[in-house]
Structures are given as C-alpha cells and as structure tokens.
Amino acid sequence: MKGQPHSKQRTRLAMATLSHLPLALLILAACCVLALASGGGQWKLLKRSIGISAMHMALLPNNRVIMFDRTDFGPSNVSLPNGRCRKDRHDRALQTDCWAHSVELNWVTHGVRPLTILTDTWCSSGALAPDGHLIQTGGSNDGERVVRTFSPCATCDWAELPDGLAMPRWYASNQILPDGRIIVVGGRGQFNYEFVPKTDPSEHSMYPLEFLSETRDDCENNLYPFLHLLPDGTLFLFANTKAISLDYITHRVVRTFPALPGESRNYPSTGSSTMLPLILAVNSTQPVDAEVLVCGGAPSHSNFQANKGVFLPASRTCGRIKATDESPEWSIETMPLKRVMGDMVMLPTGEILIINGAGKGTAGWGVGRDPVLCPVLYKPDAPIGHRFEVLSPSSTPRLYHSSAQLLSDGRVLVGGSNPNRGYNFSGVLFPTELSLEFFSPPYIKLKWSRPKITSLKPGRTMSYTQHFYINFYSRKQSTKGVDEILVTMVAPSFTTHSVSMNQRLLVLRVMGLEGGHDGAYRVECVPPVSAVLAPPGYYLLFLVHGGSPSRGVWVRLGKD
Ligand SMILES: *[C@@H]1O[C@H](CO)[C@@H](O)[C@H](O)[C@H]1NC(C)=O
Ligand SMILES: *[C@@H]1O[C@H](CO)[C@@H](O)[C@H](O)[C@H]1NC(C)=O
C-alpha cells in the first residue's frame, strides 16, 4: 500500500480548494455589488412560508430537514397535525394552542409536514445519534429538562421524555462522543455538563465546570459554548474569549489555551466557530492536527448598549489556533465584513461559508442592525490575505434566530430570522421570516463538470479499518492525478444560534486513482481509523475533483 505523506495531503486540499482565488482580488472593497457582478454563488427561494421560523435545523440521513422554533410563541402559520391542540395554562402566549412549531421539510419536493412538540424547545440543542435518530435536549419553561427524539420515517413524529436531563438546559451546546453518547454543556445558570442518553432513567449525574462561571460576564456572553472533539480525545470548549480542553472521562481540565484577543464571541455577542477540516494521517500512530477557527462576535457590553438603543459595530476578526500544538497561539485574521450572529457551514470542498447575521448590535429581541446580506467564503489553505471571498447577497435579512445547513447536493439551506417577541410580520424593523432559501456556493455553477459517484464498495456501512473504493464519473480531464481528488466526509450538524453542533469534516487519505477513459475513475480510500477522529454515525461522503464536489452519499461509520 502506497501512502501519501501528511504534508502532501495538505497541499492537495489547498490545490483542490484554490480554484476561486482570482475572485478574491476583486473583493478588497468588501462590497456586495462587486461580488454580485462576479457571480460568487446564487440564491434561490425554496418556499415563501413553511409555517414556522426555522430557529433550529437538523439534516437527517433520509435527507429530510427537521426544523422547530418554540411552543410559547403564539399562532404560527401551520396547524398541529390530526387536529391536535396543546393545553397549558402556564403558556405565556396561548393557553390552548393548535399551532405547530416544528416541521419536516422534503427539500426535493418542497413538501412540508407539521410535527408535534408539546413542550417548549426555545433556544435548545441537539445531535444526530449514531443510529440516525435525532436527539434534542432542553429548552425553556416546561421544556427545560425534556429530551425529545425523532426517528427518520415518513409518518414519524417527536417523542418527548420529561425529566430526561438532570439540569435545565436553555442555551446549552451538544457534542457527540466517540462512544456514541452526547455531552450537553452549560445553559443559562448552569455551570456544569451531563451526558445523554442516560443508561438508567434514574441516573441524574451532572459534573460541575468552573470554566463556565469564570467566563460569564455582565452580558452573559458565554452561552451556547463552542465545542469541538479534538483528535486527542479531549473536548475543546470555547466560551466568551477563553478556551480549555476537557477530559470528560476524568472530568479534569487538561489544558488552558490563551484567551482570544478582541470582542466576546458567544451568545448574545454571538460569533461562530468551526474546527477546520481534519486531514487524516498515513497511519494510526501519526497524530492528526486540529485547528479551530472562531469568527465574528461583538464587544462584551454590546447587548447592554443595544438594549439602550446604541448599536455597536460587530467584530471583524477571526481567531485561528492549532489546538494540537504544544504551545498554541491565536493568529488573527480580518474578515471583509463585520459580523455578529453569522453561521459557519463547512462545505464539501473543505472551505467554510460564513453566512447570515448583522453588522451591528447583538443577538436578542430587536437588538441587531445592518443585516449582512453577503456570505463570505473562507479558504483555510489559501495564503493569508487571500482566504476570504465575498459572495453574492441574499435579499432577505437573516438575523437573530436564523440558521443554515449543508444539504447532500452541496447547496446550503438558509432559513429563519425572528428578532421579535412573537411571530410579527408588520410594524417591525425585521419581520419574522417563515421563508427558506437555497444558497448555491460558487462550485455549483460548474454543474456540467461535477463528478458523480457511481458506486461505493464495499458499501454504505463503513468500518474503521477496511479500505473502500469509489467509482466515479467525471468529465473533468485529470492532469494531476490523485492530487486533484479529495474525498471528504461531513458529519451533519444540529444548527441554531450560529452554532453548528457536531459539524466536522474529515479529509480521507486516497490513493491509487485508476481509469479516466470515458471519464470513469476508481479511487481507493482509507477510512478514519478511530472513533475519536470520527465518532460513529452518519456522514455525507463527497468526492471532489478539481474543486468541484459530487453530490454527497450517506454512509454510516460503525464499530468493527
Ligand atoms: C400564512 O399561510 C397562508 C396560507 O396558508 C399564506 O397565504 C400567508 O401568506 C402566510 N403568512 C405568512 C406571513 O407567511
Ligand atoms: C409587533 O410589533 C409591534 C411593534 O413592537 C407591536 O406593536 C405589535 O403589537 C406586535 N405584533 C404582534 C402580533 O406581536
């Protein structure tokens, strides 16, 4: 077996993602109009109304997207299924409520199916379990300790487990772990974490975490902490301006990283974060590097000022740190546009889309201003100064309570935005948005030249040890051989409040590109070698040929 050295793998990622570089030069003026002229991506309305505002979004392995907002929000624009109503005399909005607050979207047919949630899911968290069930945790009011599950099937609906959590979790974050459990961290007033699902329903352990009280400031800028499972098995945790890594097995903080200079980065000074693509190494003894990127946010007192009518400019910076270094330092990069409440979406090419949000103010009711309509592409392997590219603008502001999600065809689903106390469509600065849009990143315009995966052998259930082969068809002439090929696996995320929980992208080691006659190719791939690198469960597998990604194929990575 021929191996590729690690650095060459990096170079290949750079080559495969640099195809849009010349555009970056145009963008120095940071002006959307220029980007529009240069055709950087395309917007398309999917549906004017899905009946609710897509505050939380999760993509399931059957390609449906589950969305929900909150139950104590008053009348939505879609009724609960089967003539159901919720009766709750403590509900703030409607004591008898026959409106749905969750839907399932089929983005191929544009069909929307209302779902039943009975307890409040406001500002909650979730994760796709290894078996493909969606697990949602917490919320507010009567839903703060509820765990809800949803199975992907055409007639399935939510099941709710009261007292599923040890503590109330409102604004908490989740991360799936190598053993398939989910860690749920923080939440308003909760300086601790716990695990779900519980092995025993009477098990209500929780573990204190001082870091969460230390990072709390006057505006509580440490909610919805950013979590990333590092290749050494510890959990990287970022809140406000600080970061640690936690050994969640022994419950010890194992490292304290330097503070990120500048603004606050977490809710309500909401920035966003992603771990950069994990480039998998030649063998299991070679360490895998992990870099974390944190972008946007707002000055620490911004929420306080905004509530008094003073809307401070959002952060313009990103911090990037190699969390696996011996003495890591943040390097600071400047975005072309200021942004608070941006979403970061990992694309199949290993690039990162920064989308949605505002140029001033913070998260919260009525406190965001200057919607940032232009997404920005971040190319992690381009030289500094050429990493950002401004893309074409949407016409719909997506502020507080908006979200975005990568779809299996490589487009990005964008929805939500409700900076109002209820559904409010008139007499407000930014009306509640019930619409959904598709954003096609620049690679979609290369439609004719997109490669197509024709078969995956030995199959769609993958082990951590067995090499597999991808047969694909591509009209692109291959001149650089295997160096032009990337095989990436993207873990689907649960997205809300600019946090894409569990988002993770692996760049697999590929070798032995064969064929090319009549555009038919075959490539050999090495799976991720451990559950620490890639927790078990569903992933979207993409083949990228010369910067152009195939449609994603769902695979399930399991224990051997
Ligand atoms: C609510 O739904 C009706 C159709 O069911 C539609 O005509 C109306 O425009 C929708 N309202 C909003 C604000 O989307
Ligand atoms: C919408 O907001 C406006 C302005 O704050 C307020 O006067 C109105 O009552 C709100 N409507 C609803 C339906 O909440």
UniProtKB/TrEMBL annotation:
Residues 450-556 form the Galactose oxidase-like Early set domain. InterPro entries: Gal_Oxase/kelch_b-propeller, Gal_Oxidase_central_sf, Glyoxal_oxidase_N, GO-like_E_set, Ig-like_fold, Ig_E-set. Signal peptide: none annotated. Coiled coil: none annotated. Keywords: Signal. Residues 55-443 form the Glyoxal oxidase N-terminal domain. This is Galactose oxidase-like Early set domain-containing protein.
